[in-house]
Amino acid sequence: VHNRLIYILFFGFLYSQSFLDLTPRPLYNINKINTPITLDGQLNESVWQSAQIATGFTGTNAFQGEPAALKTEAKLLYDDSNLYVAFIAYTPPEKIRTSLSKRDNLNDDDNWVAIDLDLFGDESLVYGIGANPSGVQIDGRSGYRFDPSLDLIFDVKTSITDYGYIVEFAIPFSSLRYSVGKNQDWRVNFRREYTTDDELVHHVVWASQIQGIECQTCQMAFLNGLEPPKQEAGNIEYIPSLVAGYSEDFNNDSTSDNVEPSLFVKYPVSSVDLLEIAINPDFSQIESDDIKNDINTVNALYFRERRPFFSEGAELFKFQSERGYINLFYSRTINDPSVAVKYTGKVGKTSYGVISAIDESSPLLLPFEESSTIVQMGESMSNIVRVKRMLKNASSIGAIITNRTFDEGGDMTTGGIDFHYHPGKNLHLTLHATASIHNEPDSLSTIFDDNPYTFDNHTAKFDGEEITGNALGFSLSKMDRTDTTGLTIRLRSPGFRTSNGFEKNNSTKWIKLSKGKGIFYDNHPRLLASGHRVSMVHKTNYDGDIKKQEFEFNNEFNFLNGYVLQIGTEIENELFREVQFDNMFDMNISVTGKLNAKTKIHGGIAGGDTIIRYLDTPEQTDSYGIWSYVEYKISDQASTGIGIQYEDAKNYYDGFLLNSWYTHSFTSKLSLRTKIQYSDFSNNWFIEPMLTYQPNAFSALYFGINEFLSTEDNMFSNLTESERQLFVKFQYLF
Predict the structure, then answer these.
(1) In this predicted model, what pLDDT tens digit does every residue of 341-384 receive, in sequence order?
(2) Which parts of the sequence belong to the DUF5916 domain (predicted)?
(3) Which residue from 206, 232, 277, 360 has the fewest beta carbons nearer than 10 Å?
């Protein structure tokens, strides 16, 4: 059966239908003006009348290529300081959906408009800048998937009219990084999103996009006539900050307080080169991570990066892929630095970057064949060097070296190359090849002293050994609007470790084949589209033992009323800690939708066979999980949500996680957020109210309280306060 499936998938890969040629790319000719525009959201200045109008937007996703039901007009102008963008979004005023919130935190069904800018013309960095009708800003890296972590300085004004709404932007060139000179190959696109009465979300664009083509720049419009000023060195930005905190530990009857000043400096060497220095930075993130259940987890948990220092240039230092699966730089390994320096730049199509940091507290992730653990290593010095060359059609080739030296002894070095290639409009090839060397300290030999695990004649404990390893990631995929086929291979030798990455396991040989089919319905009474995917995984270790065989079948149904139904099944054989588990079955069903314009729901159920991994001798049991989430928009200024996740592994554990929040925005700059979480597994409450005033992306005042409470048998029995933290953080951009 397995061989037959491989033949079917490979046959489909070779003969599935390719894309037609891309539609001709439109051209936008931008005019330069001599007098700055006064932003008011009205477009009354006469210079706007001379600007080219971009209109005739078309749909994406299920509505790909269809003329947009609502008319949109976009315009561009520029002077020596700013790029000006204007949108006129036609719609009945009573149909406008908008909310007042903090930046980058729009409501799911908010109307919004945005511009995509590729100022290098090679997809190495595509800016996405937008706003909703209330003037709430959104920004980030655009592309095949949007990354909101990048923050920019720009101004926006909006107005509601009797025919829709207007959004007017002024984007300083000093906020952007771009190539200079004449005859630049810049690209642009305009976007708009709105929700109709049937609760369907429509995402429309000016330069049409074909679903499945990962090269976004290849589908953007050409931008002609823009000659921005060459930025001179010396326009330095200073962001001093002050963090003051007070905490009480009621269990130990103790208190503590601290005041920490810090300084962040951004020195633009040119229009493309940037030096950033952080002295005694407060690298604690303002918003806490959501709690997770790790009771049956033998691997380290991954949390996404939220800290602003690592946002600039993140697209360059990213050495990972959804297909290559080798993560050599996970910025949260730089945990508590006393000083951090970053330099990024570009020459032609080649980007380069360096990060150096002295870390006061250094978590080290150690992967093993069936588990991973995090060891605290004290002070360390991290250095990351990255080079990336962009090729045709958003292809690229690059290299990275990471090194970390620990004060308590030992060091780690990892190096790798990555290659991303688009041989056709709907073909994508990815290759990651890496090697590592870990010189262990011998002063920490007691670490893992009771761990008998050995690999390649090495022990798990730190005893001064030199451990080397290598890893390979390869993928080949073919995608179009209705068909996807993929092959992915991962290899991790037993000694492979990363100095600053996130790799949970090694001693692994892993291969995955997948085939997907999308169906779009023109006249179905209920369905808009559906997607179906089958995949197979085969995993062995380096001794040739078969560790896992997995077969998955997943389905997604998109309904005309906006609801989405997902159904997935999985059959699996697994060898874990020398115990064989065969014919394990799992099934999950989830539903997402809107009861009305104000209420969004998400829920699901999963059940099947589970391995209890935390036991010395693992066992199999029946398990199921139920989750539910409701989000309610109280008004344009306030919203709330509550979610619960319940897990039950028969005879071993059961419990739930509760997560709720409430936000109220007094203006787009001043907001109050309260987050309440409870873990039934640890019997702990976490209550976190926070008041934020943020006039721009880099100036802010935060005041927050973190309240920790504990219970005994249930949510409220013997509820006692265990710890309280108060903090104030102020930072200002000069």
Answers:
(1) 999 999 989 999 999 999 999 989 899 999 888 888 889 999 99
(2) 244-336
(3) 232
With vertex at residue 651, the alpha carbon angle to CA 650 and CA 652, rounded to the nearest 5 degrees, is 95
For residue 408, how far is the Cα from the chain centroid? 34
Rounded to whole angstroms, how far apart are CA atoms 491 and 505?
Answer: 10
If one compares 562 and 315, the residue with the highest pLDDT of the two is 562
Contact criterion met (CB below 8 Å) for 209 and 59: no
∠ CA 517-519-523 to the nearest 5 degrees? 170
pLDDT for the residue numbered 445 = 52
Instruction: Taking residues 432-448, report their average pLDDT.
Output: 80
Note the pLDDT of residue 76.
Answer: 98
Cα separation, 688 vs 708, in Å, equals 9
Residues contacting 331, CB < 8 A, separation 6+: 305, 307, 310, 314, 317
Do residues 492 and 433 lie in contact, with contact meaning Cβ atoms separated by under 8 Å?
Answer: no
Which among 164, 202, 219 is positioned nearest to 67, based on CA atoms? 202
Separation between Cα atoms, residue 488 and residue 476, nearest integer Å? 7
- pLDDT score of 321 more than 70: no
* Torsion angles phi and psi, residue 516, rounded to 5: -130, 155
Please give the Cα distance from 461 to 606 (Å, whole number).
38
More confident residue, 286 or 694: 694
Q: Beta partners for 623?
A: 608, 649
Residue 600 pLDDT class (50, 70, 90 cuts): very high
Does 166 score more than 50 pLDDT?
yes
Contact 82, 172 (CB under 8 A): yes
Per-domain boundaries in the chain = 2-224, 313-341+348-520
State the residue for tokens 């991954």: 302
DSSP 399-433: EEEEEEEETTS-EEEEEEEEEEEEEETTEEEEEEE
What are the distances in angstroms from CA 423 to CA 118, 219, 392, 476? 22, 16, 10, 11
Phi, psi of 52 (to 5 degrees): -60, 140
Amino acid at site 253: D
For the question of whether the overall pTM of this predicted structure is more than 0.85, the answer is yes
pLDDT at residue 74 above 60?
A: yes
Copy the structure tokens of residue 92.
């009945």
Q: Would you state the structure tokens that stand for residue 410, as one six-digit string?
A: 């030992």
Closest listed residue to residue 131, CA positions, set 146, 115, 112, 148: 112
Q: Which residues, other chains included, contact 635 with Cβ-Cβ below 8 Å and sequence gap of 6+? A: none
Task: Pick the range with the lowest mean pLDDT from 92-106, 230-244, 292-306.
Answer: 292-306
Return the structure tokens found at 437: 């060397």
The two tokens of residue 366 are 């150690």
Please check whether the domain covering 2-224 is classified as CATH 2.60.40.1190.
Answer: yes
Average per-residue pLDDT for the chain: 89
C-alpha 169/C-alpha 463 separation (Å) is 59
Tokens of 603: 């829920």
Please tell me the predicted confidence (pLDDT) of residue 394: 82
Q: Is residue 260 a contact partner of residue 254, using CB atoms and an 8 Å limit? A: no
Q: How far apart are CA 565 and CA 555, in angstroms?
A: 8
pLDDT band at 18 (very low <50, low <70, confident <90, very high): very low
CA dist., res. 693 & res. 701, Å (int): 5
